[in-house]
Records
---
Amino acid sequence: MYKRLNICTALDYVKEHIKFLEKEDLICEEISDGNLNQVFRIKSKEDKHKSVILKQSLPTLRIDETMKLCLERIDIENKYLRDQGNLVPKFLPKVYHYDGNMYLIIMEDFNEHIILRKELISGKKYEHLGKGIGEFLAKTTFCNSDLYLDPLKKKEKVKMYINPELCRITEELVFVNPYYNCPKNKINPWLEPVVQELINDKRLQSEVSELREEFMTKAQSLIHGDLHTGSILINDMELKIIDGEFAFYGPIGFDIGAFWANIILSYESQNYHRSNLEERREMEGYLLNVIRDMWNVFQREFINLWERYVSCPIMMNNIYMEKYILSIMQSSIGYAACKIIRRIYGLAPVIDITLIEEKEREDVQKKSINLARKLIMKRKELKHIDEFIDLIEERN
Amino acid sequence: MYKRLNICTALDYVKEHIKFLEKEDLICEEISDGNLNQVFRIKSKEDKHKSVILKQSLPTLRIDETMKLCLERIDIENKYLRDQGNLVPKFLPKVYHYDGNMYLIIMEDFNEHIILRKELISGKKYEHLGKGIGEFLAKTTFCNSDLYLDPLKKKEKVKMYINPELCRITEELVFVNPYYNCPKNKINPWLEPVVQELINDKRLQSEVSELREEFMTKAQSLIHGDLHTGSILINDMELKIIDGEFAFYGPIGFDIGAFWANIILSYESQNYHRSNLEERREMEGYLLNVIRDMWNVFQREFINLWERYVSCPIMMNNIYMEKYILSIMQSSIGYAACKIIRRIYGLAPVIDITLIEEKEREDVQKKSINLARKLIMKRKELKHIDEFIDLIEERN
């Protein structure tokens, strides 16, 4: 039943299945840019507001065709978009159509939104970014956890979202490969000594193993699983979360950490994307504020929800609530650090770094690795978001 | 399809389904003594070595008929006995027959083994007890965890063992009810002040909430889920683990803690089951040794398996291995304490305590509660099994 679509067949498929486009004269373009799927935009020639995105699973990783992947991951994405869309519709694309045989989703197109990563590279500042992500993560993680859901319902959802193949990608690329001499690492020659030192650091490895175990065992809430700045679309008014195929029940800190890591990588590379000193400083300050805003809003919303909904007698307890939230912060910092390291010399680097000229890249890469190591080792000593931000600033 | 069996129909069912009994003249007795199922022993009149156990799920809890329960739990037990039986056959009954429509298992009968709880009350000492439980738990928990299993296989097993209804019983009876004024608690009048003090202790509640969260979210390995001394059959040669219906992927420490709790309750009540001082001291020393043996063998076996099988480059790391095992010990101590408290004034007390005369019971109950509170609060400071045993001994 499964057939890989191309520009022509994707267009035909949409014409057949999407009511509001069936009478339109359509054009189709391929806009795939992730590592796992093909993505098409199909739109009306006359009315640019009439358009959809068609996303189809591919049977292998685009960046490494030896890595086969189950097509069923699109089913997880479909469930994720609908589930989270029910909780916080403003942050997610509407799903118009799902085809479990063709392994595809047709969903809302946001052609007036831009991928956040690109916006940050070009120096665009959105005041609502940190707050929006904080709100999205607080509401979705709280409402899918044992803090809110009936325990029977929660366990049903854990089962429904078990996602072995996509979790394995993260388990390997984020938590293992960067910490031994794995042939898949892409280590620039100037980084060799730094990386070797890191690989030989047994205390660091032990901490990373602990974070990896938490990732593999802790079914705390439904998380996105790949929340980097390429999974966020933004404009002046709003932001949208896309790409839910990595979703599973995991530690809440993993999503927060993924977001922070990518903000930090943007922060570390501002130096090389802005020639104007003042602009650069402003952008750096803005990015640190995004981290602070994100956390403060997350924390505030999470506490609001806790106070409103937690009814288990032993959990209506401020000592526990504060501990629970602090432990999310510390785990987020650990995951942020692992995500930074992985993006510096792992299989899938980020353009924030690769766009920088070679000579200058060395500096930002080394700084980022050193910061990440420090964060992994010190995360459990940090009690307040400002201590985390201080560490980022003190990087020199 | 489901029909509740009685002594007659159980006998007929066995005659029909068990080859080695079909030509025998059989007798059947009901031996149910747990809270959840009915259990029959069906044996040949002529040859006492020919016998089987038939266990059938009931639709409600025997001790509280308002609590409905899915019949499917017998399916979990069947899988558990077969899975663990493949790993360590000597510790488990063979399954002869499973009927998913009648919700029953027919399994090996150990009529020369006695329930451990009874043996400990009557002062019987088995040198192999602690070592056997240590070996059983080390092998089964290691081999069902991410330390050993392929991550895809492990997640399949997590899914297969999701066990919402039986987990909920534990979540409520062990981790919630004893910590607020729950009508299901059975508080002897003399315990009221002690229990009220405990219920008002917010720091304690916070620690219990943490243990509860770990129980509800940490899919570390396949555990038995109800490993008290009534789930262990023993004789001079060997021990057998029965009753796997609570099995699920949870924290390894939960099984160890359940075992320790019941050994500690036996230890605390020896005073009242032995009139001879010397016998009492011997039995107390023996019980502390069971705890020590169990842990030392568990630890040794776990390390052996780790050194032999862990091949993930970042996990071949002694710092991490020691931390991992220490954290199992600390979590086991926490669970042991929760299980002690639950057995003192929760819904399902143990005969070790209820057999004691009222006047004397007060003393052992108070001592046990105080010890448990101390263990919950101090567990993360304890670095060695002997420090745990010291705390048990220092109870006066």
---
Amino acid sequence: MKNKIGGYLETNVFSSDKDDSHYIYLVIGMAKECASHTEHGPFSAIIVKDNEIVGSGINHVTKNNDPTAHAEIIAIRDACKNLNTFVLKGCVIYSSAEPCLMCEGAIKWARLDRLVYSATAEDAQRGGFDDLVFKTSSTPHKILNRQEGSKVFDIWNNNNKSIKY
Amino acid sequence: MKNKIGGYLETNVFSSDKDDSHYIYLVIGMAKECASHTEHGPFSAIIVKDNEIVGSGINHVTKNNDPTAHAEIIAIRDACKNLNTFVLKGCVIYSSAEPCLMCEGAIKWARLDRLVYSATAEDAQRGGFDDLVFKTSSTPHKILNRQEGSKVFDIWNNNNKSIKY
């Protein structure tokens, strides 16, 4: 999805609250659309670079049987595909709601400059979503054979053709 | 990827350290393979249900230009596709390294029963990966128009055909 937002850009060359308000308006509208249908969860996100929308996403968890298909993840994948990169420096992500733990991590890995969102995790909890719970809960886990697993990174460091990120 | 591990299962009906050691051995081996090539980051994961491998993944970040394509994310998507569900209750995920913030969140959303991993985030840092940094860093962010964004969840709650997850 690549759209110039006609007219609006002329007086807003740099990121500002006015730009941010515009893009947040767009994602809230998309999320409202999703919330009123059954195929998608009530979330949406867009990614903007130099006042151009370079990626977008709506929630596909239940539609695609994919628990990782949050709006932000899909928007990041879309922007990376459109820009042919795995680094979104210089980009801003607008999300209809506060990113969960997973999406917060994805935003960091994508090296996005900034995040603007509207609803909070508390609001999402009112809709039945576990974002808040996950911030303090922990999946039962154990570490096994660390010594051997750690050697993987020695092999990696000795591979001078590896692509660092 | 659906494989019975021939012979081994007969004496290991229930999850045990012996089972866990076996599956960790597999993911470490896969990660070592990845680490010695340029196409993939040095990580791998598998998902096991009832002693059967129901999903697997290796890192595709640089290969696919997708910062979300960590081994665990790909394994979760693969298992969900194979089992035709967005809920992986009853499944265990084995990862060659400690899941990052993003993958930790994905594991929670997928409702995986357990996590077993080998290398730690400290080990991954030795390989140049920012997992540890991300646990304490924060992307610059702001909340905008929360009141309007919050209404999305009222629409969602009033939609009796919505699929909760």
